């Protein structure tokens, strides 16, 4: 018997009321995402990208259909179960970083541990380890105002990893960055997927898809295409697009 997928969606429907109209944001979506895949979801505004990301992260529930995570149904979880799932199984990365301005970089990384009941002193070694992993060990005591945009996003990536989640969901992670810094973040996300995590990214940036293993297009709540990108082809891209973020100063 084959291993269950990291995520498997079957005939997902999600509708919203807009005034007197019912809008079907997702219309019969079927999808399978494996462990270690870096998947991008692209499409115009209103295509259903954000709705899908919310369902994958148990921020919302489908009206019908099935969402299975490592073989277990998550589409029908209650609010308490959804919260538990998000805390331990999913790391979220956002366009605007969502860092707390009064905390240092390592304290921002440690926040999910604190919310889970771990003391600050106990959480610090793991936070520092992750900052080193994303190339920011020398910025651990800096507050967000003292960091560049790319450095803040690296802190956010480290924060998403601190609970060791198998699934990383990224919502326009390069949307607030210049192209070179964004390329460095995409490289980092690719490395994370290479370590066995599943990374699902929603983006408007067509240039970002070259860093992914798979590109899914959405239009009017339906999958328009679902294409795999060969890793060898990605490896041939222009390395000038990548920048050492330590060279960027706020």
Automatic annotation (TrEMBL):
Name of the protein this chain belongs to: ABC transporter ATP-binding protein
Keyword 4Fe-4S: no
Superkingdom, natural source: Bacteria
Gene Ontology MF terms: ATP binding
Family, per entry: Belongs to the ABC transporter superfamily.
Keywords: ATP-binding, Nucleotide-binding, Transport
Region annotation Disordered: where it falls in the sequence: 226-250
Span of domain ABC transporter: 7-245
InterPro entries cross-referenced by the UniProt entry: AAA+_ATPase (IPR003593), ABC_transporter-like_ATP-bd (IPR003439), ABC_transporter-like_CS (IPR017871), MacB-like_ATP-bd (IPR017911), P-loop_NTPase (IPR027417)
Species name: Nocardia xishanensis
């Amino acid at each position: 018997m084959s291993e269950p997928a990291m995520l498997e969606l079957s005939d997902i429907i999600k509708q919203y009321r807009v005034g007197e109209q019912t809008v079907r944001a997702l219309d019969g979506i079927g999808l399978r995402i494996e462990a270690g895949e870096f998947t991008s979801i692209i499409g115009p505004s209103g295509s259903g990208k954000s709705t899908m990301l919310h369902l994958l992260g148990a921020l919302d529930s489908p009206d019908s259909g099935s969402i299975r995570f490592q073989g277990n149904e998550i589409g029908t979880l209650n609010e308490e179960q959804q919260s538990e799932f998000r805390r331990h199984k999913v790391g979220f990365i956002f366009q605007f970083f969502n860092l707390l301005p009064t905390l240092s970089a390592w304290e921002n990384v440690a926040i999910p541990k604190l919310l889970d009941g771990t003391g600050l002193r106990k959480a610090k070694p793991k936070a520092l380890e992750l900052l080193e992993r994303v190339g920011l060990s020398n910025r651990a005591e800096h507050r967000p105002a003292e960091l560049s945009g790319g450095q803040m996003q690296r802190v956010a990536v480290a924060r998403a990893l601190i609970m060791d989640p198998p699934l990383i969901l990224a919502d326009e992670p390069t949307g607030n960055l210049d192209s070179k810094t964004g390329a460095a973040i995409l490289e980092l996300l690719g490395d994370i997927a290479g370590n066995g995590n599943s990374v699902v990214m929603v983006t408007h940036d067509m240039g970002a898809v070259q860093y992914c293993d798979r590109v899914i297009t959405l239009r009017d709540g339906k999958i328009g295409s679902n294409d795999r990108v060969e890793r060898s082809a990605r490896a041939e891209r222009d390395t000038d697009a990548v920048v050492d973020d330590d060279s960027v100063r706020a």
